[in-house]
Structure formats: structure tokens, C-alpha cells
Design a protein that fits this description.
The complex is a heterodimer of chains A (about 450) and B (about 250). Chain A is an alpha/beta fold and about 450 residues long. Chain A is about 35% helix and about 20% strand. Chain A is globular. In chain B, the strands form three sheets. A six-stranded mixed beta sheet of chain B has the order 2-1-3-4-14-13, with helices on both faces. A four-stranded mixed beta sheet of chain B has the order 6-5-7-10. A four-stranded antiparallel beta sheet of chain B has the order 9-8-11-12. Classes of the chains: A alpha/beta (about 450), B alpha/beta (about 250).
């Protein structure tokens, strides 16, 4: 039976390829139906499986961990295109397995959607789970965040593999208590950076101890609700970190782990946490320092995460923001620049974005500094315009152009530095529009 | 100069889907008109304020966990809030705030969280956490004798029953219960609704109904200056056209 299913899957892949269609998800969807929702069960996996989940940073951390093993000479399989649901992982394995369902690799490394962790890893044995953070993101698709955490917690109750957790996120760290018998829980942690605060700066969740309900106390907040927290009543948060990022200096773009200094290319507190998770995985699997250093120092991404475009002689930086934390980050970077600038904000509300756009109200636009003009675009161009207006920004300086090419042309009209924020489904169309404009002007795309 | 005093309760805990944005919008619309707008915050273990000092009491929505945390504290405020409401303080309540003013809220685990019982309605959460009323919503409300189509975003497992005077008729979406005909609760000084988005973002008429009510308490003849709401109205119209397919 398994073999028949696998052959069906492989035929679908072949047909899709014949028509030059992406086989990232469809074969899995078909098999999902044929197997009554258990489409990952037909594979025979003997090698270790590492899964990476969390709201922000999954793709970066997955790619980096994969590189650790690759550069160490291992054969890996990774879901690079971010097909991170059970159907996506099934589609990937179909392409890499024998007719008997044997998957031939040294390691499988899967970015996994938060809500699909229990689904996929009840079918495939998991060795290591890395959990980065939980923020409000696409809440209307997943139900409330608490439901989501409970689901993963339920999975962790019976999980005895390695659990690498962000010890500075109470929503994540609580998973460490799900199974008292699991001796393989490892927390990563970061010492405060220059912009850490005593009080919370951006909207957040997880204010209370999930175990006893006491308000959590923070020594410092790095960003949003990420920081050194503890519960004075039950001691939640008092753990010995497995790995700690220290001497974080974003100006020089360096940080230290276990006495070794790393110089990442992507320079944000956000990325420091991601890279600390990578360093934790490297330590766990005994990856040589040289390789870890090479991966962390050279990792960069060209997928709309702090990506630069030249619009004629005007420099534009595009950053993806799936949630307020991401957008606030871009605004921070933008404000730290001491010149006049203009912002294009592209907001879509497609299914993958979560139909709801109210998260834009948790973005702190009142910090706008020397922003000369704002252009808005996307299917919800007006929503973001209203939001920015109500933060006190003059309405006459806001131009709404739902059409992306028109919006980019408008943005490039005046002199000066440009920033572009786009949400999930908006980021690729925005990249294309920026590239089209840049190519027309003979500009280069860095 | 006209002045409004607002008490924003549990702002640090009940703030889902941009609910705090409602306060930003009210204060923005006051500022544009030269109305002084004071927003005080109250949260668990703050000293009890004199609720009747306020023209408007605002409570947003939260997850079950947060709602359990505040319910005990809220019950201590019961007499103060009820007295204020009887004296004409406006209550603006979103989602969890809406539910907690009714008789009780039975959460998905079957635990009853007592409400303040100011109103006759009660809420029972759908036991299946996956089954939620989620999505864009359009309702037709009557405000100050005018019919207005209001657009928001709902996401609630709670099914609110026994609502005698709803805020509006559902044109698209769920409302008080799954696929119900009506949404929210309304009295002349109460607007309670499941609409997030935040609720006031593209519905300036609701903001102005509330602001108008509040300034008229101390100055009967005060008239609200018209603001330029073109962005808000275009924003709403696009959603109405899309959802109701013209």
C-alpha cells in the first residue's frame, strides 16, 4: 500500500515538473487525502530529524542549521522553499525517497509551522526541536496563541528528544516544563544589548506566569516580551542556560558565545537570537567552531529581509514584517538613520497573511523621526494609511496607491533614503516591483 | 474647552487585535477638534478609582487566560462601575470586555467566570477551540437615528445569548453567535461588540457617537466639528464592496 501511495506521489511530482509547476505542496495534499490525513507516516526515516519552529526567524535558523551540517560534509534534506506544513514536508520527502519509502540522508532539517509540529512529529520520529519564539502572528488562522502553545506543549509532554528553547521568551521557555522526565531541555539566552529597556516598549503577550498566574518580573526587555524574566513565586525562568550570547554590540555587529566572537552580517537583536539558536544546535551536534563561525558570519538573505535596491540613485531597503515586532524593528533601524527618509508600506490580507490586519495598530508609529512622506499600497493600503494617520502623522503627507508599480514610482519620485515594509504575501510582489523599477533605471540590485 | 475623561481598564492585559488602537483613535479625533482627552489607566491591584468621575470606561478583549486573571479583580470594581453606568458614564466594551459585563462567561473548559451582571446576556464558549467565529464582519447599526454600515474583524469562541438590544444587524460574518443575525449590545450609553480591527478604525461615526455623547454630558449644546474622514470612509467602502460583492 505504501509503495502504491509513494508511486502516486512521484507521478504527481513528475507531471508537475513536466508542466514546470512547483511541486512544493500539491503532491502532499493529494496524499494527505489518500492517507486520511497521515501523509508523513509512509516514510521510513532512520536518520536524525531536526525541526525548527516559532513565529519569527524559522527560515533563517533552518537554513543556517542546514549549512552547519552541509559544511561538515553531511547529506541533508531541508525544506528550503518554506513549505512547512505536513503536506509540504510530505511533498519534499516524496521527491527524496525510494519506492519503499526509505529516505536516504544523514539529517533531515525541517522548518515546521507551529501548528503542525504535533501533526508531523507524531508520524516521523523527531530528535531535536528548536523553538524560537511565540508572537502574535496570523492569529485568526491558528486560533489564539494560547491554543497554539498548548498544542505544542501537548506534544512536548511525551517528547524525550532534545528541546532547544528560547529561554528569554516565557511563551517558549514554558515548554521546558512539559515533560519533567526529559533531561534534554536546553535553553539559549542573551545578555542585554544597548537598546534593552527596563519597561516594555512594544505590544506583547505573556505577561503572567503560565504556571501560577503571578505577573512575571523582568530584569530587562530586549524587544517586545523577549528578555530576562522570572516568576518570583514559582521560580519559572530560573534555569541554567545551555548557551549565552554576551557582549552584544550592534554597532560593530559582534557577539560572543562560549568565549568565541561572531560577526554576523545581519545586524539586529532579532538576528542575534536566531544565531544564538544556531550556535546552540552547533554545540549540541559538536560542529567544529570554524564551521559555526563561517555559517554565522556569512549568513545573509535575499528574500526581502533587509534587502537593498537602487531606485536610480536612491537607496531603498526592503524588510518583511509579518507582525508588529518585525515592523517596529524596521522603524527602529529607520529612525536610527539621521537623515530625511520616505516609507512605503505594503499591506496585504491574503489567507497566508491571516485575513486580519489589526496587528498594524500595535506598531509604534509615533516614534517616526524625520519621515518626509509615506506611500501605502497592497490590498489593505487604506487600512495602513488610516493607522499611520491616527498616530498623528499628517494625512496630507500620505499617498495611497494600491497598485504596487504606481506606489514604487511614487516612492522613487523624490530625493532621499527610502524604506519599504511589506507583509508576508506582499513581500515577493514588492521585490518584483522594486526590481522592475530598478532595472528600468539601470540601477543595481545588491 | 470641552474635555473628556476616559478610564481604560486592563490595557496591559486585554488588548487583542489592536483594541488599544480605539483609544488612540478617540484621542486623535479629540485632539483634531481641540477637545481635551484624558486617559487614565486601571489594572489589577491599582488603587480603586472613582469610576463616576469618568465620561467613558473602555475595556478591550483578551484570551481566556487573561480573562480569568482579571475577573476576580473586576468583581471588586462592580459597584463602582455600576454606579458610574447608572449616572451616565459611557461603557465601550470589546469582546472580553463585552462578555464580562454580562451574567457569566463559560470558558472552553466549562469553567464559569462570573460577569458583573450589569446586563442580562451571558456567554458560552464553544468547547471545540477550533470552532471560532473568525473573519471580517459588516453590520448595519442605528446610531443617533442614522443607519450606518460598520466594518470590523471578529475572532471569538464565545457565543453570547439573550441580547435584547443588539448594536446592529449582521450583513456579513457571524455576530453574537455562529452565523447569527445580530451583533453586539447597545444602549444609549453602552456599545459592546465583538468587533476588533480596532473597531473604530474605519467607523468614524461610532467614534463620534461616543465622543459626542461624552461632551454633551457637561455641555448640552456642544457640537462636534466635522473632520476629514475620506481615508477612513474609502477604507471601509472597499471592504464593504469586497465582502458584500457590491
Amino acid at each position: 500500500m505504501n509503495s502504491i501511495l509513494i508511486i502516486i506521489g512521484k507521478i504527481i511530482v513528475a507531471v508537475l515538473r513536466l508542466f514546470r509547476r512547483n511541486a512544493g505542496n500539491l503532491p502532499g495534499i493529494v496524499l494527505w487525502h489518500l492517507t486520511g490525513g497521515k501523509c508523513c507516516r509512509m516514510f521510513k526515516v532512520d536518520c536524525p530529524v531536526i525541526a525548527i519552529t516559532g513565529t519569527n526567524g524559522k527560515t533563517s535558523v533552518t537554513n543556517c542549521i542546514a549549512q552547519l551540517f552541509e559544511q561538515n560534509g553531511k547529506k541533508i534534506i531541508i525544506n528550503k522553499e518554506g513549505n512547512n506544513l505536513d503536506t509540504g514536508i510530505c511533498s519534499l520527502l516524496i521527491r527524496h525517497c525510494s519506492i519503499g519509502g526509505n529516505v536516504n540522508a544523514d539529517y533531515l532539517i525541517f522548518e515546521t509551522d507551529e501548528s503542525h509540529v504535533p501533526v508531523v512529529y507524531s508520524q516521523i520520529k523527531l530528535e531535536t526541536l528548536v523553538v524560537l519564539n511565540f508572537f502574535r502572528d496570523q492569529l485568526d488562522r491558528n486560533g489564539e496563541m494560547e491554543t497554539l502553545i498548548r498544542k505544542i506543549n501537548g506534544f512536548c509532554e511525551n517528547f524525550e528528544g532534545n528541546l532547544i528553547l528560547n529561554g528569554d521568551d516565557p511563551n517558549t521557555a514554558r515548554l521546558g516544563r512539559a515533560n519533567q522526565n526529559n533531561k534534554n531541555v536546553k535553553y539559549f539566552h542573551a545578555k542585554p544589548y544597548a537598546f534593552a529597556t527596563d519597561t516594555i516598549f512594544e505590544a506583547s503577550e505573556g505577561r503572567f506566569c503560565p504556571f501560577c498566574g503571578e505577573p512575571l518580573e523582568y530584569e530587562y526587555y530586549q524587544y517586545s516580551h523577549i528578555g530576562k524574566f522570572s516568576c518570583k513565586k514559582c521560580g519559572f525562568g530560573n534555569y541554567e542556560p545551555y548557551i549565552t550570547a554576551e557582549n552584544i554590540d550592534l554597532e560593530k555587529s559582534v557577539f560572543t558565545v562560549d568565549g568565541h566572537e561572531y560577526s554576523p552580517k545581519l545586524n539586529s537583536i532579532y538576528n542575534i537570537y536566531n544565531m544564538t539558536a544556531v550556535a546552540a544546535a552547533a554545540k549540541l551536534y559538536g560542529i567544529p567552531k570554524k564551521i559555526t563561525d563561517n555559517v554565522i558570519s556569512n549568513y545573509t538573505i535575499n528574500n526581502g529581509r533587509m534587502e537593498t535596491f537602487m531606485l536610480g540613485d536612491r537607496k531603498a531597503t526592503l524588510n518583511l514584517a509579518k507582525n508588529p515586532v518585525g515592523a517596529n524593528m524596521t522603524l527602529r533601524v529607520m529612525n536610527e538613520m539621521q537623515t530625511e527618509k520616505e516609507l512605503l508600506f505594503v499591506l496585504n490580507d491574503n489567507i497566508a497573511d491571516g485575513l486580519d490586519v489589526s496587528w498594524i495598530w500595535d506598531i509604534n508609529f509615533s516614534v517616526f523621526d524625520r519621515v518626509a512622506r509615506v506611500v501605502t499600497s497592497g490590498t489593505r493600503a487604506y487600512d495602513i494609511a488610516v493607522r499611520i494617520k491616527c498616530s498623528g502623522y499628517p494625512a496630507e503627507k500620505i499617498t495611497v496607491l494600491p497598485d504596487l508599480d504606481e506606489a514604487v514610482t511614487e516612492l522613487a519620485k523624490n530625493e532621499g533614503r527610502k524604506f519599504v515594509i511589506a507583509n508576508y504575501t506582499a513581500v515577493q510582489p514588492t521585490r518584483s516591483a522594486l526590481k522592475r523599477y530598478a532595472d528600468k533605471q539601470g540601477g543595481k540590485h545588491e | 474647552m470641552n474635555k473628556i475623561k476616559i478610564l481604560h481598564m486592563y490595557a496591559d492585559m486585554l488588548d487583542l487585535y489592536g483594541d488599544s488602537g480605539n483609544m488612540e483613535i478617540i484621542s486623535y479625533r479629540c485632539r483634531m477638534r481641540g477637545i481635551e482627552c484624558i486617559i487614565d489607566k486601571y489594572s489589577i491591584d491599582s488603587p480603586q478609582p472613582n469610576f463616576s468621575d469618568y465620561d467613558l470606561i473602555y475595556i478591550g478583549g483578551g484570551a481566556d487566560l487573561e480573562q480569568q486573571h482579571i475577573s476576580e479583580d473586576l468583581s471588586k470594581c462592580r459597584d463602582g462601575i455600576e454606579a458610574a453606568y447608572r449616572r451616565g458614564t459611557f461603557l465601550f466594551l470589546i469582546c472580553g470586555g463585552y462578555q464580562l459585563m454580562g451574567k457569566y462567561y463559560r470558558d472552553a473548559d466549562g469553567t464559569d467566570i462570573p460577569g458583573l451582571g450589569l446586563f442580562e446576556y451571558y456567554t458560552i464558549a464553544e468547547p471545540n477551540r477550533r470552532k471560532r467565529c473568525i473573519g471580517n464582519i459588516v453590520i448595519r447599526a442605528q446610531l443617533a437615528g442614522k443607519s450606518v454600515d460598520v466594518v470590523g474583524f471578529e475572532n471569538h469562541g464565545g457565543q453570547t445569548h439573550n441580547v435584547k438590544t443588539p448594536l446592529g444587524e449582521v450583513l456579513y460574518g457571524h455576530g453574537n453567535c455562529t452565523r447569527s443575525s445580530h451583533e453586539g449590545y447597545f444602549e444609549k450609553n453602552v456599545i459592546a461588540t465583538y468587533m476588533h480591527g480596532p473597531c473604530l478604525a474605519k467607523n468614524p461615526e461610532i467614534s463620534d457617537y461616543i465622543i459626542g455623547y461624552c461632551i454633551n454630558r457637561s455641555n448640552e449644546n456642544a457640537e462636534l466639528q466635522q473632520l476629514d474622514d475620506k481615508l477612513e470612509k474609502d477604507c471601509r467602502q472597499i471592504m464593504i464592496d469586497r465582502l458584500l460583492k457590491k
